[in-house]
Design a protein that fits this description.
- By secondary structure, the protein is mainly alpha-helical.
- Among the domains are: 85 residues, no CATH class; 124 residues, no CATH class.
- Helix content is 64%, strand content 3%.
- Strands 1-2-3 form a three-stranded antiparallel β-sheet, with helices on one face.
- The longest helix has 86 residues.
- The protein starts with 22 loop residues before the first helix and ends with a helix.
Length: 490
Amino acid sequence: MIDNTAPRRDGSAPALPSAAPSPSDVRAERRRLIESIGALRRLLSKRRAFEVADQRRLNHEARRHNRVEATHDKALHRIHEEQARQEASLTHQLNALDGERERQETQALALLRRHSIERALSSTYLTASEVSGIGNGLIRSLAAQGIRTAADFHKVSWEKAPNGKGGDVLYIHRTKGGKVHINGIGEHRGRPLLEWRRAALTRAEARAPHKLPPDERHRIVEIIEAERVRLRAELAKAPQTAETARAEAVRLRTEALDLLTAATGEAARLAAVRRAEFDAMAEKLLDLQSQLSAHVDTYGDAGRRVRRAQNRALRPIPQASPLPGIPSPRTPGSATARVGFTKATDRTDPHPIPGVRASPGWLVPILYFCLTTVVGVGELGDNTAHPSMMIASRLVALAATAELLRLWLPRIRTRTAGPMPDGTGWQTSGVFLALTAAGMFEDEKSDVFGAACVVSVLAAVLFLAGTGSRIVEAEDHAGKNPTSRDGAAT
C-alpha cells in the first residue's frame, strides 16, 4: 500500500484530499463564472462599434490623403499653366519688338513734325497786308478774341446768329475750343482768312522735318534693346521661378503627408492596443467558458435557477472575419483569430472600401427590368405573347430587379460603399439578351428566328461566365477569410 503522506521530492508537504464542496458552494462558484462571462460579453459587445469606428477612421484618413494628393496635383498643374502662359507672353513680346523700332520711329517723326508745324503756325501772325479785305480794325477785333496767328483757329462755318435774328453769320472756330463771330467778317472776308491759314499750314508742312535726327534714332534703338534684354532675362528666369514654386508645392505636400502619417500612426497604435484588449478579453472568455463546462461536467446541474443563465453563458461566440485592411495584432493561430462579433458573410455582401462606390449607372438596367416586370416581352403593339412566356418573362425580370437592388443599394451607402461583385455585369447582360431573345421569338410579324437563336446562345454564355466569375470570387474570399464553425468547436 502506498503512503500518500510521504514527503515530495521538493520537500513540500503533500496535498491532503479535499472534501466535496457543498451545493451552495457549487451554486456560488457557478454564478461567479456565469457573471464573469456575462461581464466579458458586455465588454466584448462594444467591439463591433469599435471596428466600425476604426474603419470609418481609415476611410477618413484615405480621403484626407487623397485630398492632399489632389491639392498637390492641382498646384503642379497651375504652376505648369502659369509657366506656359508667361513664356508664351514673353515670346510674343520679343517677337513684337522686331517691328517696334519702325513703329516708334514713325510715332517720334509724327510728333516732331506736329511740333514743328505748331511752331511755324504760331509764328505766322495775321496782318492786314496778307489777307485781302481785312484791315487793321478787324485785326484788332480778332486779336481781342484770341486770334492773332494761324495756330489760333482751324476752320470757319456758317451758323445761326447768336440772338437768333438776322439769318446765318460766319463763325471762326478757335483751336483751343469755342467759336466766335466778328462783326464785319462775312463770306467775302472769311474765305480769304481760311485760305491764308491753309497756305500757312502748307508752308509749315513742307518745312517740317521728314527724317528723325540721328540722336533720336539712336535713343529709340537703345530703348528697344534694353526692353529686349529685360524680356529675355524674364524668359530665362521663368523656368527657375516655376521650379521654385514646384519645390514649395512638394514641401507643402511632404509636410501635410508627414502630419497625416504621424496622426495615422498614433491612431493605428491606439487601435491596435484596443484591439489587443478585445482579443485578450475574448481569450479570457473562452477560458471562462472552458472552466464553466468543466465545472458542469464535474458537479452536474446546480439547479433550475442557474440553468438558463448557464446555457446563455455557454452559447458559442459569433464568428466573423476581421474588417478589411485591419490586421489583428495577435499572432496567427491564437484563439482570438476565431473570435468576432458579426456573422460571417460571403463575397456578395458589401465590404467597405475607401473611395470606391457602386456606379449610379446600374440604375439603367434596374429601371429596364422594372419596366419589363410590368409590360413583359413580346407584348408591344398588336403582338400577343404566349401566357407561359408572359409569366416567365415577368418572373425573370422581377428576380433580376431584386438581385440588382440587393447588391447595389448597400454599395452606394457611405458606411458600406464598395464595388459591385465581379461577374454581375456579365450576368445582367445575359439576362437582358435572354429577355430580348424571348421577345424576338414571340414576334410574329418578322422572321428573326435565326437572330433570336444567336442572341439566346450569347445570353447563355454571358450568364454562365458571370456566374462562374462570382463563384470563383466567392471561393477566393472564403479561402482568404475562413470562418469558423471549426474554430468555435475548438
